[in-house]
Structures are given as C-alpha cells and as structure tokens.
Write a structure and sequence with these properties.
Elements (H helix, E strand, L loop, with lengths): L3 E4 L3 E3 L4 E7 L8 E7 L6 E7 L4 E3 L7 E6 L4 E6 L8 E8 L14 E2 L3 E6 L1
Parallel strand pairs: 2-11
Antiparallel strand pairs: 1-3, 3-8, 4-5, 4-9, 5-6, 7-8, 9-10, 9-11
Length: 124
C-alpha cells in the first residue's frame, strides 16, 4: 500500500506564494503518476495538476502559469509551487498516486492512493 503525506499548507494573503510537498510515508510501492487535488468546503474534489515519470504534466484550466508541479515520481516525491494565490485557491490539498504508467487525466477516480491533505488558506 502506498501511503502519502502532504506538508507545507499554510495561511497566506492573496497574491502570495506557497509550496506544498508530498512524500511517501512508511513502506511504499513505486508509482509513475502522481497528482495534486483540492477540495473546498461544500465542493467536490477537483484535480489541480498531475505529473508522471515521463515528465508530462496536466494542469487544471486557469492554473497553468500560476501553479507549477514538479517532483521525482519514482521516489514518490511531489511538489506544487503556487504563485499569485487567490482566495478561491483555498482548500484542502491532497496528494494522490495512480497505478498507471503515466497520467492521463485530472479525474480523482483515476487515482488509487491518497494522502490526508494539507490545508491551504488564502485570505483577501
């Protein structure tokens, strides 16, 4: 079982930047696709960005150029650099991993393993 742990969530003011991280916790299995998802209160979980071992990334519309995903997927490490943060970016950010050899979508249902999340709060 792949266990993921997020860190780096914080409260920041609008326009600020933040980087959150994800790494394997305990015994883990090598994966090739990982992603970041977020969920605001009262809303469904949505994909933010994915990154795979081939260096390919997928971003949610409107986030590319403002957010940057990176990492070493083979080592189950993932990062998300968030810039020019907006209040609407507020939410619980989750790290996830898929069993596929590459990432194909931002759909949460395509991912098999999840961290417990790290809270990101952006104030106006």
């Amino acid at each position: 079982r792949v266990q993921l742990l997020e860190s780096g969530g914080d409260s920041v003011t609008a326009g600020g930047s933040l980087e959150i991280s994800c790494t394997a916790s305990g015994n883990s299995y090598r994966v090739y696709c990982m992603g970041w998802f977020r969920q605001a209160p009262g809303q469904e979980r949505e994909g933010v960005a994915t990154f795979d071992s081939w260096g390919m990334s997928i971003y949610r519309d409107g986030l590319k150029g403002r957010f940057r995903i990176s990492g070493d997927v083979a080592k189950n490490n993932l990062y998300l650099e968030m810039n020019t943060l907006k209040p609407e970016d507020t939410g619980m950010y989750y790290c996830a991993a898929a069993l596929t050899r590459r990432c194909y979508s931002l759909s949460p249902q395509d991912f098999n393993y999840w961290g417990r999340g790290t809270q990101v709060t952006v104030s106006s």
